[in-house]
Amino acid sequence: MRFLTPSHQSDPLVVFLLEAEMSDTTITILISGAVLLLLYWAARTGIVSFYRRIRKPAGAIEKAPVGRPSAKTSPERATQNSAATNIAFVIVFGGMLWYLFGGGLEQQAAKNLQGIKNQVAADAVAQYEIARRHGSAVDRCVQAGLVSAALLQAHDEANYRRWKAVEESDCASAGVPR
Fold it and tell me: How far is CA 157 from CA 27, 65, 164, in A?
C-alpha cells in the first residue's frame, strides 16, 4: 500500500483495507466504483442539476420552450430514460463486481505474472549468451543453471529439459560436477 501514509492508519476504512490485504489495483477499482456510485446518486437526486442552476451567470435568461411540447420533455420519455439509466448502471456495476470478485482480476493477475516469468526466463537466456561470448567455462555453467531455474519457474518444461542438457554439457566442460 504505497499510497497510504502513517496518518491514514487510524482511519477505519484504511484499517479494513490493510487487513483485507488487497492489492493497490483492487483498492483503486473499489474507490472508482464508490465514486461512480456517488455520481449516480448525485444525478438521481438532482444535486448535479441544482449545481448547474447555481453556476449560471447572474444575467442569464432561461429559454422558454417554443411551440408544442416535444417528445423529449414528456413524462413517458423521462420514465424511459430513467429506466434505461438504471439498467445501464446495473450492467456496469455488475461488470465491476464480476471483475473484482468473479475471477476477472485473478485471471488478469495470472496473465501478468506468467508474462513476468517468461520475461525473466528470456532475460536469463540473454545473460547466458553474453557469458557464452565473453565469459569462462564456469561462467557459462553458472548462467546455464540460472536459465534452467528461470524456465522451471516459468513452467516451460520443454525448454527446461533442453537447457538442463546445455547446463550439464557446459558444467562438464568447466570441470564442475553436477
Answer: 36, 73, 10
Number of CB atoms found within 10 A of residue 97's CB: 12
Is residue 70 over pLDDT 60? no
**Closest by CA position to 123, among listed 84, 161, 149, 87:** 149
Assigned C-alpha cell, 151: 524456465
Helix ranges (H only) for 56-156 are 75-101, 104-134, 137-153
Entry pTM: 0.48
User: What distance in Å separates the CA atoms of residue 45 and residue 51, rounded to the nearest whole number?
Assistant: 12
Name 128's Cβ contacts closer than 8 Å, sequence gap at least 6: 140, 143, 144, 146, 147
Q: What is the rounded CA–CA span in Å between residue 177 and residue 175?
A: 6
Residue linked to cell 508474462: 115
Enumerate the domain spans of the chain. 1-54, 115-174
